[in-house]
Write a structure and sequence with these properties.
Blueprint (H helix, E strand, L loop, with lengths): L3 E4 L4 E5 L2 E5 L2 E6 L4 E8 L4 E8 L2 E8 L19 E10 L4 E10 L6 E5 L17 H11 L2 E6 L16 H8 L6
Parallel strand pairs: 10-11
Antiparallel strand pairs: 1-2, 3-4, 4-5, 5-6, 6-7, 8-9, 9-11
């Protein structure tokens, strides 16, 4: 028996199941790529499997049901234009590295000077929104903070999106240098 798993909430589709074991009304999926497995009980009359997902030393209850259509997850927290603040595309140069970093600066519409924050990613190569599995946490944070009269700069990591450079060879010191540049924007 062969299987693939989809996790629409995470935007992950076609995850290869390495092994499917069925004994009576029990089923187990082993998914090596994520170092996880699912163990459940089949309920043929309701087209349901009730079980537990195990991964990374943690377990979570998970029920599976047959469906004809998979609904795309709703992301109500993601802000939509037009925004009640200014949003500008910007570029700045890390002179020492010679890399151009591209980002988005959001500013309240009126007044100033403003308190400002720079959002710096810390979880691998990320774009300015830190988009991961359909979520855009830096976009959500920038929107929230700018609505509270705080200017926000977020930018694509080296070699990601519109930024130049090579993320793979950069060190944490290089990333700190990127964040601490003179910002003439």
């Amino acid at each position: 028996m062969k299987a693939n798993l989809d996790s629409p909430d995470q935007g992950a589709y076609g995850i290869v199941v390495d092994d499917v074991v069925v004994k009576g009304d029990s089923i187990k999926f082993i998914v090596g790529v994520v170092k996880g497995f699912y163990a459940g009980k089949l309920y043929p009359d309701s087209l349901k499997i009730s079980g537990i997902w195990s991964q990374g030393g943690m377990t979570f209850p998970l029920d599976l049901r047959k469906t004809e259509k998979v609904e795309k997850p709703k992301r109500p927290q993601e802000p939509k234009e037009p925004y009640p603040y200014k949003s500008e595309e910007v570029k700045f140069v890390n002179a020492e590295a010679g890399d151009t970093l591209a980002g988005t600066l959001t500013l309240p519409n009126e007044g100033g000077p403003f308190t400002a924050v720079i959002l710096v990613s810390g979880s691998g190569p990320q774009d300015r929104n830190e988009e991961l599995l359909g979520h855009k946490p830096f976009l959500v944070l920038a929107d929230y903070l700018t609505r509270k009269w705080i200017a926000v700069l977020r930018y694509d990591d080296r070699g990601i999106g519109e930024s130049t450079g090579d993320f793979r060879i950069a060190t944490s010191e290089d990333f700190a240098d990127d964040a601490s540049q003179q910002w003439n924007i």
